[in-house]
Amino acid sequence: MYRINLLDNAVAAYESALDALRKILDGEGSYINYRSYVLNLHSALELFFKKMLLNKNEFMIFSFDGNNYSKVLEKYEKSKKANKTLFQYVTETKDAKLPNTVTFVDAYNRLAYFYNEEIFEYKFLENLSRLNEIRNNITHFEIEVPDEEFIILNECFLKCAEIYSEQAEWGYSIDPQVKAKILEKDISVRKLIIKDEYNRKILNCIQSDYTQGMDASDYLGLANVLIESCGFENSDREKIIKRLQIFYDIGFTESHNVFIDEHTDFECFNITESCQKMLDEFKS
Prior knowledge:
The chain has a two-stranded antiparallel sheet with strand order 1-2. It has 13 helices and two strands, in the order ααααααααααααββα. By secondary structure, the protein is mainly α. The chain folds into two domains: 2-62 and 101-188, Four Helix Bundle (Hemerythrin (Met), subunit A) (Up-down Bundle); 196-283, Arc Repressor Mutant, subunit A. Helix 1 packs antiparallel against helix 2 (31-56), helix 2 packs across helix 5 and helix 2 (31-56) crosses helix 6 (122-136).
């Protein structure tokens, strides 16, 4: 049972990571999609690594930290006395639990240094270490997503696709369009947002006077104004709301007070200078 679930779960995590990546590449660079990409990519790689260790020697998927080593030996002793494999014993014996398995870091280190798996060259090991840091810090997400961080994630994803081909579906290859996009020079979440024509249409409408005096976080109100004044369809409302939230969260839009004199001011909603700069660079 464990052997089957390990691979099935790895495939499910990989497919979820791919789904999140596709959304980001299509201009939906939201925190939810970014978080899903990171967590599922990390999970897919960890599970594939454990499957690779299991193929080598099932003993190697267990942690040797603390007293876990003695627990592993104890479980093997009991399973041998019962004339069962360890996994049969754990599955069929009431209240029996599998000992703690290796961590993400231990899994790839064992494959790299105990078994000298070729895929684990120095650059990949560096990227895996950084992926683990990103995953551990994901709950402390900041609006600023470093461009180099997204590049590292994509490099790890390409390696994950190679492992997927070897472990789950022989001959599998990643969608050429997806691969071409993530291999583009200087790729970033922000640039992907700007490259999307639908996003640019919304941002260009925000530059008009239609949305002046509105709160940048009033997504429904802004969506209604854009539908009424900028030619969007009513069926676009939920899609516009999602994009407006992405723009605000990533720092592409803002609200601020403009003072006419000491007695008069009004709220101004517009795109930020950094967003304007990226739009201008895209046009050129």
